[in-house]
Write a structure and sequence with these properties.
Blueprint (H helix, E strand, L loop, with lengths): L12 E8 L1 E2 L11 E2 L6 H14 L9 E8 L7 H18 L5 E9 L6 H10 L3 E7 L3 H6 L6 H12 L5 E7 L6 H14 L3 E6 L7 H7 L8 H17 L3 E4 L2 E3 L6 H7 L4 E4 L4 E3 L4 E5 L3 H9 L5 E5 L2 H14 L4 E2 H8 L1 H16 L3 E4 L2 E4 L1 H4 L2 H8 L1
Parallel strand pairs: 1-4, 1-11, 2-3, 4-5, 5-6, 6-7, 7-8
Antiparallel strand pairs: 8-10, 9-10, 12-13, 13-14, 15-17, 16-17
Helix pairs in contact: 1-2, 1-10, 2-3, 6-8, 11-15, 12-13
């Protein structure tokens, strides 16, 4: 069977991701590509290169009518505010001019570190067109923050949140559980603060020990002890229950939102919506079969773009890979996999095979099937990776 454009039925939606691959210091758990920013870093050259690449990629924006823009990293809030204003302005110009009809920029997100939030910076971000801010908090316990190499403390989080709350109507905070030394009691205290602040969106992640990170090296040396699996499950259950009681809906494995405040940009990734990524290591997807990723080297990336040379690799997904991606991305969301659409796109045999593989997990309570939608239960979320692989 030959599969056409089945990843997404939202052909007018799209996203643009801009990767600011610089940090003041590296968190010990982070495996995203970034480099430590020294005083001599050429911000102007870097921003001009990002704009130049987006201009070159504008043909990939031509079908988009509702577009989200996400400036992530790294630490984008380190960028001099004048250059941030220029970057957003140029991105808006390119996005608007790429389409042949009416184009709407629906969501413009900036990731920030609490240490970089000042009244002056926030005023410029707002004036530049940022309408959603995502702040990396992780914990409100200073000892836990130090254990993972964060450069802010709980007091700074409160100051930063107050500044942002006065200016922005859509805020997202990051929370992590399973941190070294974290207990259910300390996590509960952090949740107390989060629910009291009541941001529109909360991303809650279990600490992961990724290869080649400082965190994993410290664990392997015996200097950090990984959180017990049963404790991690109990922490997830606490996060899930506390946020539900506070009015948040878990719409994706790690993401919770107040009604109508789901992240448009991140939702696009899970729904197979096309997106264009610019910057070193940024990824893109055409909504059909083609995935591409830029080289993970700032200097080589800038030289390549400036010289008009190739700075990316790409792959064409096979029919099997497209089917597996639908399973993986569908099960990440609370809505799950639409079984009727799955059969329409991949055939009756694929639907039968999927449900046959799911049967035992349905019986054990890890999956549920309601109104032709197959989704993870709360019990299944903590085993999501294993469940998804078993359904391939």
């Amino acid at each position: 069977m030959s599969i056409g454009c089945v990843m997404c039925d939202c052909v007018n939606r799209g996203g643009v991701y801009i990767h600011v691959a610089v940090c003041r210091s590296k968190c010990i758990y982070c495996d995203f590509y970034s480099e430590v920013c020294h005083s001599g870093f050429d911000w102007e050259r870097y921003v001009k290169t990002l704009v130049a690449e987006l201009e070159l990629r504008s043909c990939g924006l031509s079908a988009m009518r509702e577009v989200s823009l996400y400036i992530g990293g790294g630490t984008p809030s380190l960028m001099p505010v004048g250059l941030l204003r220029f970057l957003v302005s140029e991105a808006r110009r390119i996005i608007m001019s790429a389409g042949s009809g009416d184009v709407r920029l629906t969501e413009v997100t900036l990731e920030v570190n609490p240490d970089d939030v000042t009244a002056g910076n926030a005023d410029v971000w707002l004036d530049a067109g940022i309408n959603r801010v995502s702040m990396g908090v992780q914990s409100m316990n200073d000892k836990e923050l130090r254990s993972i190499g964060r450069r802010h403390d709980a007091k700074k989080v409160m100051e930063a949140y107050g500044i942002l709350r006065q200016r922005f109507g859509n805020l997202s905070l990051d929370l992590m559980f399973g941190l070294p030394g974290q207990t259910l009691e300390s996590l509960s205290s952090t949740l107390d603060v989060f629910t009291e602040l009541h941001p529109e969106h909360i991303s809650a992640y279990s600490l992961m020990y990724e290869e080649r990170t400082a965190l994993t090296r410290l664990r392997d040396l015996g200097r950090i002890k990984e959180t017990d699996e049963n404790l991690s499950v109990a922490m997830f259950e606490m996060v899930n229950e506390r946020l539900r009681k506070a009015g948040y809906m878990r719409y994706e494995i790690s993401n919770y939102a107040l009604p109508s405040f789901e992240s448009r940009h991140n939702s696009a990734y899970w729904e197979g919506v096309p997106y264009v990524g610019v910057g070193p290591s940024a990824h893109s997807f055409d909504g059909r079969r083609c995935r591409r990723w830029n080289i993970s080297d700032i200097r080589a990336y800038m030289l390549a773009v400036e010289n008009g040379e190739k700075c990316h690799e790409e792959e064409m997904l096979s029919d099997k890979e497209i089917t597996e991606e639908r399973i993986m991305t569908g099960l990440r969301t609370a809505k799950g996999i639409d079984i009727v659409r799955f059969e329409n796109d991949f055939g009756k045999a694929a639907r039968v095979e999927l449900l046959d593989k799911a049967a035992s997990m349905l019986g054990e309570g890890y999956l549920k099937l309601d109104y032709n939608r197959l989704s993870l239960t709360d019990k299944g979320v903590m085993l999501s990776d294993d469940i998804i692989v078993d359904l391939f």
